[in-house]
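**User:** You know discrete backbone vocabularies at least as well as I do. Would you mind producing a protein record, from residues through to fold? Write it directly below this note and I will take it from there.

**Assistant:**
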Amino acid sequence: MKAASERSIDERASPSTMKTRCERRSSSDHAAMTRAPAAPPTGKSTRSDYVYCMAFDGDKIRHMTKIWNAGWAMTELGWA
């Protein structure tokens, strides 16, 4: 969604717990498709939530997973 010209991100953090040892960062990405390099702009917008779950080994990230429904966002923007 780098081609979107109107974009804002709201970020939230959830501290890790001893049980999961996983820190979660969730965000909402708000974007409008008003310009694009390879296709005409659709003028459509989306609000897409996603979560990063990071597992740590000491102070270093051991593994990171992004959970996001990309197909939904692409459909809302008119790309799919």
About this structure: The CA atoms of residues 32 and 41 lie 9 Å apart. The mean pLDDT is 76. The helical segments are 70-77. The radius of gyration is 16 Å.
